[in-house]
Amino acid sequence: MLIARNPVILFANGIGDGVMNLPALRALALHFGGRATLVTHEGEEAFFFDELPLRGRVGVTFTSEPRGSRHIPVDQLRCKLSDCDMLISLVPWWSPSLGELLSEIRPAYSVGFFPAFRTYVPLNYEKHSADLAFDIVKSLWPEARIDDFVAPPQFPSKAQAFVAALRGLFPAGSKFLAVHAETCAPKMWPWDRFARVIDRFLDDREDFAAIVVSDRSPYLRDMRNYAQGRVLPCFGLPLSCACAVVASADLFLGIDSCMLHVADFARTPGVGIFGPTNSAEFGFRVGPNITLQARATEDTSESEVLDAMNAMIKTPAIRVVRAKDSDGVNGLQEASKTGTRGTDLRGWHRGGSAEEGGKMSSEGIATA
User: Fold this and answer.
1) What is the pTM of this model?
2) Which of 238, 270, 352, 366 could cross-link with 94 by S-S, CB 3.0 to 4.6 Å?
């Protein structure tokens, strides 16, 4: 079953999901000894995959569909994947085009998260998204350990040079607070709160400077520490440079976004603000952190964020979830425990359901 001459790995999801799927992709590429082809979107995050020992990479455009799924351009892939004898799908969403792809290329073996695949790995949203993807690996390679493959992306030389130049702008020994504040609107924390917290933190930490890697902020130039040159907005950076800044920082502050996952895999101490998405599924997995989980991000106060940042400085190896229940009461949980679950906003990370995959199969899509 595991002997495949031309295995194909299918991955298509958000930028942050690309970071969280890196352990699974690294393990699969290693397991197949350079024989695998990766089918993925070729956006700015393509550098994530440059390190993988692959036979080749096929870049396509996946268009969005309702409920977070994507449309796969089967016509573009039909000829390119004609020799595929094993299809490994890491996508946690189902769409009719995924079933069509299975029907068209008819691999001898397939594995994925829906019943239409020969080996069906049930979706388990109670675990971290990185572990969910690694379930696919373990279905093929049971002895594989995800912790052997958890690391930040490998950054191109231009990104490493950018970080070195950035540090050269500040006195020797300066520490960096990396801030990322932008994502889908309901997951964001108000920008004015970010600005006030950064100012208050820097007032008490003369050895720190703040590097803001978001695309924009209407408040930064009004900050007193901006005027003093201790807040540097790095708007519009190439993704590789922004990720490298976060990975090399001394402290990270942000929300559920790709940069939080980079900070996590780089073991950058971090404070994460979560609202409608579940930090147990989409938050920190390996890195030191304090996660602030509420039903809505705006339920988390500036004082709570500042307290968490100072606690990370004092105890940089801590891993804690501070979760508020529906009445706003705080509680402490181990980092491995599930935080307060908010609205299921699956469109940002996943879509479809196992039942849909089974339904498509029963209507005539070939089970490969």
Assistant:
1) 0.89
2) 352
